[in-house]
Amino acid sequence: MLIRFIKKIIFSFFLIVVFSTQIASAQTSEALDEIPADGSENFTITLHSTYTVTATGKTIVEQKFQIKNKNPELFVSKYGIVVSSTNLNNVKVSHNGKELEPLTTSQKGQTSIGVTFEDKVVGEGKNNELVISYTDQDIALISGKILEVNIPKLSDHYQYQSYQLELRVPSIFDTPSRISPSTFTLKQDGDYNVISYSDLKDQSVSAIFGNKQIFDLKLNYYLDNPSSQNALTQITLPPETPYQKVYYLNLDPMPNNIKEDQDGNFIATYEIPANNSFNVELFAQITLTLRENPLIPFSPVLPAHLTEQKFWEINSQEIISATQNLDGVKSIYDFTVEKLNYTSKNLDQNFERLGAVTALNKANENDATCQEFTDLFITLARQEGIPARRVVGIAYSNNEELRPSNLASDILHTWPEYYNQEQKAWLRSDPTWEDTTGGIDYFNNFDLNHIALAINGSSSTLPYPAGSYLGNNDEKNKKIYLDFSKEELAEINPDLEINLLNKKVSGLNIPGNYDIQIFNKTGKVWYFSDVKISGNDLEIVINQDHEVQKILPFSKIVLPITVYNKDNNITQKYKIEVVVILKEGQFAKNEFEVKASPQLKIEDPKKIIFLGAGFIISTLITGSLFFLGRRWANSLRRKGQKLEEEGHKLQEISTALKENQENDGVSKESGTPSS
């Protein structure tokens, strides 16, 4: 934000920004014409900033300004800066070596530090040396095993002839795993690692020490079935992504199964007895990494990632007009950050999700939450032909003014992902936090504080994240608990149970047709390198058109197979071996005895006629049994009919959950994001 104003004859104020803003006042000893607001015409300004991080995470900041007069009739009388933090202590100011009393005020997440010079430095080429120092609690963040340092950019970098920055970090922290921008020099100075920039210009500085963050997570889901029939319902468990490893320590009660939807969500299905309810409790350890895990594939790009959805009105004239001057995903991100301003309202109140078009309305530009930043980015990206989707989850923050989040009230956060065609990867960003932190780069430098709970791509609202599953009087009960892990859990070995089941029609085995069931008895995802099924003198066909890539925690996968023998003997028994080879290098295997189906060739017409006649007779018998079976099954179905699943959409849910989900709002009670 740039603010300039001019006072004629005596005073001229111009504004330059250090962590948002700096203010200077120029004065003359006699009346002059109006002085230009751009101070660079009258002064040469250089800045050398030193940030010294302590072992406890506090940052001692020293801003050293050299202000050189270019006009012999002007001198600087006042100077000030605005820092994007209210957690400042020990503020000191000196002018040419003389300590002065600073004037500080704080509001809206910022602190202004001003000073009036006692001495007049007059004459062309004369220098003023101004040193402003303070302790900032928000520059560095020690969270768990990670030290994260974020220094916002100067918005008025062009006011400076040069801008040098030095970041000093105790060597007791791990070596930096990421530093941005990359034009730094790194050296050791005693007990400190020193990162230096000789000409930083308009870039923020981001550094992370440590390569992963580990959280302990507890989630509660309340499921209710007030109807007189049994019902199926589904919940969304934290998914695993290339940046997020999940390990479910305990899931109680266990679901019928856990499956992955097309956006990569882990969907658990439960059967709820009639007129019954219960609570599902998940304990998990979540590991976040800066770089993607090569073992974990990205979920695919779908045509739905470019379509219009509720809240993503890509075909509206307002959106089309907004994209006229945008070129590429970075310009879309910058437009979103600049167009919207984060709301000053309390997050504990209910917020209605506005959607992209309504958020663009001038009446709403200053009341945006994370939902509006995310929805606008996704809508603009899709309109430009860039696949984009929404992530709903937990964002850890130690300062809710700079990085809005309110986990104490189960208020979640949202951020967008877009698909990079060159990298073949979903890339993350957070325009909300870039806006609230005063320019920290969350487009190129994502952090280790965002935990994904649900991914909305094919739908703008589904599936619903943890925190949405409430009882009738459950609004005040916490559903999400997060803490840093004291230690990383030891690696576990795979425990895969492999079984073989005959395929049946009305209770009769079908020769050669089997289901291989692989059950994961652990809370970890295992990634398949290959599934080999072999047997002597047999041809084995897997009857599905998609490759099995992984098995989710506490879940099973079924591979339908047909076993053919080469001698057309349907009574002989054969042995087959099933081997599951994992990408981690381990494997699981089991052997089974099977009966094979004959392989018929066209040159054996008598066998075909004989077996065909037998098949027809068998079919008639089977059909009769099947008809009787259906009549019997229909009578049972009236006692407890199950619902069918349409994609990953929830078809039958508890009354309280259904009311919250259909609202599609951003209320604390529904657990949907308001940050």
Describe what this molecule looks like in 3D.
The protein is mostly beta strands and 675 residues long. The chain folds into three domains: 205 residues, Sandwich (Immunoglobulin-like), CATH 2.60.40; 354 residues, Roll (C8orf32 fold), CATH 3.10.620.30; 108 residues, Sandwich (Immunoglobulin-like). 12% of the residues lie in helices and 42% in strands. The protein contains seven helices and 38 strands. The chain has an eight-stranded mixed sheet, with no helix packed on it. It has a six-stranded antiparallel sheet with strand order 1-2-3-6-10-9, with no helix packed on it. Strand 26 and strand 27 form a beta hairpin. Helix 2 packs antiparallel against helix 4. It is elongated, with a radius of gyration of 32 Å.
Secondary-structure map with pairings?
Elements: E1 5-6, E2 9-16, E3 20-32, E4 43-53, E5 59-69, E6 75-83, E7 88-95, E8 98-100, E9 103-107, E10 110-116, E11 127-136, E12 140-143, E13 146-151, E14 160-170, E15 176-180, E16 185-189, E17 192-197, E18 205-209, E19 212-225, E20 231-237, E21 244-252, E22 257-260, E23 266-272, E24 276-289, H1 317-322, H2 329-339, H3 356-360, H4 370-383, E25 388-395, E26 413-420, E27 425-428, H5 431-436, E28 450-456, E29 480-484, E30 496-505, E31 508-520, E32 526-534, E33 538-542, E34 550-551, E35 556-565, E36 573-582, E37 587-595, E38 597-598, H6 605-637, H7 655-663
Parallel strand pairs: 4-14, 35-38
Antiparallel strand pairs: 1-2, 2-3, 3-6, 4-5, 5-11, 6-10, 7-8, 7-11, 9-10, 12-13, 13-18, 14-17, 15-18, 16-17, 19-24, 19-29, 20-23, 21-24, 22-23, 25-26, 25-28, 26-27, 30-31, 31-35, 32-34, 32-36, 33-35, 36-37
Helix pairs in contact: 2-4
